[in-house]
């Protein structure tokens, strides 16, 4: 049973964020919507976070998403990693960054900074890595998450937050599929049944992965290759390099009472529709069902260490260089 330290951030509009040191986790996000407080994040009791496997709101590292066969070649050497999803590695291994206490460096009414040291050999990765995450809550109802890290050896590195959103009610088992979603992405990455990339980046034209115009998640759900992964669990290559000051994605509640807009420095967005959430404990008793929330994970492309053609987009940190990426979650009452 965990005994985490919990930090609460507030702003003048009544938005309230809860964080904890276990996994540098985003625990809760409550907003005043139409005069009532609404929880928009999925979550379970804080002391039970080490018993759930859905990565609820956690900071993910060293490498978000999957590395095929838990290995990659670098400078002529095969680097063997710890496996935790069959023969593959998912979200940094069996004891990833989400399964550790981070140090609370400093915090105030509207910000908190956590740090974590990952030693050489951690989960099979090389290099000593010093990582940190800063959560900053604005007076305009947006939360910015900034990750930074440094390594003394070349290493795969892709950090993200794994929050699940349900803009109607993150406390109950509401189905996410009636939400509206828009993604500024012309390409997505096909994967096999285990989530490993199975083809080159592919145009979203004439596919169920075309979210360039806002549509309900249900509209093209479980069509085509989504059947392999029981829904959306795919990376989209973002267009933000070409579209200035535009959100990379927007999520809209079914009743259109609340919208979430995402901005990020990351090259890709993993969209996961909670395909295997069933059995995950809820905050107030009971269990979530599949598709109760959607994770919008900004990150490098999955399995980049095994794909040299994607490494220019990020995912491999060189020794002595600084990793820094941010994502902003902007909540808008509509």
UniProtKB/TrEMBL annotation:
Signal sequence coordinates: none
Lineage: superkingdom: Bacteria
Family assignment from sequence similarity: Belongs to the aldose epimerase family.
Pathway: Carbohydrate metabolism; hexose metabolism
CDD domains noted in UniProt: galactose_mutarotase_like
Species the sequence originates in: Volucribacter amazonae
InterPro entries named in the record: Ald1_epimerase_CS (IPR018052), Ald_epimerase_bac (IPR013458), Aldose_1-epimerase (IPR015443), Aldose_1/G6P_1-epimerase (IPR008183), Gal_mutarotase_sf_dom (IPR011013), Galactose_mutarotase-like (IPR047215), GH-type_carb-bd (IPR014718)
Molecular-function GO term, any one: aldose 1-epimerase activity
Catalytic residues, chain numbering: 162 (proton donor), 297 (proton acceptor)
Catalytic activity: alpha-D-glucose = beta-D-glucose
Matching PANTHER family: ALDOSE-1-EPIMERASE, GALACTOSE MUTAROTASE
GO cellular component entries: cytoplasm
Enzyme Commission no: 5.1.3.3
Protein name stated in the entry: Aldose 1-epimerase
Assigned keywords, A-Z: Carbohydrate metabolism, Isomerase
């Amino acid at each position: 049973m965990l005994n985490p330290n919990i930090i609460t951030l507030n702003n003048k509009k009544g938005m309230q964020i809860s964080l904890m040191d276990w996994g540098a986790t985003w625990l809760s996000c409550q907003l005043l919507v139409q005069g009532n407080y609404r929880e928009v994040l999925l979550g379970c009791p804080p002391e039970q976070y080490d018993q759930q496997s859905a990565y609820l709101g956690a900071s993910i590292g060293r490498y978000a998403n999957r590395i095929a066969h838990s290995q990659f070649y670098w400078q002529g050497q095969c680097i063997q990693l710890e496996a935790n999803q069959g023969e593959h590695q998912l979200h940094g291994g069996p004891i990833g960054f989400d399964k550790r206490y981070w140090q609370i460096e400093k915090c105030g009414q509207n910000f908190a900074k956590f740090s974590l040291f990952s030693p050489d050999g951690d989960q099979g990765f090389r290099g000593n890595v010093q990582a940190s995450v800063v959560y900053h809550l604005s007076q305009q109802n947006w939360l910015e998450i900034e990750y930074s890290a440094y390594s003394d050896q070349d290493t795969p590195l892709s950090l993200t937050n794994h929050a699940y959103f349900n803009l109607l009610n993150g406390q109950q088992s509401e189905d996410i599929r009636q939400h509206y979603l828009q993604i500024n992405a012309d390409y997505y990455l096909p994967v096999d049944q285990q989530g490993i990339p199975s083809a080159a980046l592919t145009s979203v034209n004439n596919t169920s992965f075309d979210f360039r115009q806002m549509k309900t998640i249900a509209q093209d759900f479980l069509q085509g290759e989504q059947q392999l992964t029981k829904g959306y669990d795919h990376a989209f290559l973002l267009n933000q390099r070409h579209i200035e000051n535009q959100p990379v994605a927007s999520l809209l509640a079914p009743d259109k009472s609340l919208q979430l807009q995402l901005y990020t420095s990351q090259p890709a967005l993993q969209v996961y529709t909670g395909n295997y959430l069933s059995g995950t404990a809820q905050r107030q008793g009971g269990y979530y069902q599949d598709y109760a929330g959607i994770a919008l994970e900004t990150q490098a492309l999955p399995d980049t260490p095994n794909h040299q053609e994607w490494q220019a987009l990020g995912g491999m940190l060189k020794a002595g260089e600084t990793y820094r990426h941010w994502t902003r979650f902007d909540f808008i009452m509509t």
